[in-house]
Description:
The chain is mostly helical. It folds into 2 domains: 1-148, Serine Threonine Protein Phosphatase 5, Tetratricopeptide repeat; 149-229, no CATH class. It has 15 helices and no strands. It is elongated.
Amino acid sequence: MLTQERIKTLAGSVRYEINGPLLDLYKYAHKGDWGATKNYLSQYPNAKNAKIKPYGGTALHVAAIAGNLTVVEELVKMMSGEELEIQDDEGSTALFSAAAVGITKMAECLVSKNKNLVTFVNEDAKIPLVEACIRNHKDMALYLYSVTPFEFLCQGNGNHGSCFLLCAIGAQMLGKRLYPLITYFPFFVYLFSCFFHKFSLSSKLLFISCNLIKLINQSIIMVLKLYES
């Protein structure tokens, strides 16, 4: 997971020995120096899609997690919609990085060029919307909720929708905007409300509960299938 500790130590982990000249591109993007970044890419245009070790993110990922909006906006102009789908070694796109830092304009810039980014799932089985809720970025969560298809949140056994509901209710955000999902997952909301009134949810419990609720949803579907047969 992209923790604050990892973000702080990222620069020290990116070394010349494993990246060579790409280290310069990393430094420019991380510092938010668009002039230097642009000059570098004018010499090595394919480097915009290069994965920088050890985490496998592109310059766009680096700029996004560092909170450098201008560099992100300019890189997005240079990249195709398909190139924005490049994932790092944890399966996260640059939109996931934007959701983690909570800069809504950054997310708007990315989604305006590729609307499918909101549906990408990383190795932790999380989508950008869920990450924004976990980080307690309300404005980001509001925006991502408005552009994430309702059908996607409810597809299959509803893992993404139920996990989002869990995080949103736990963080006490979005309020009445959750009603459509609440009506879709009434049994889940009942269970959660019983639990929530008795305990104060820590971030660790939120992660554990996300996995538990997936099992609950899967069990409900299995029982329904038995009754149908």
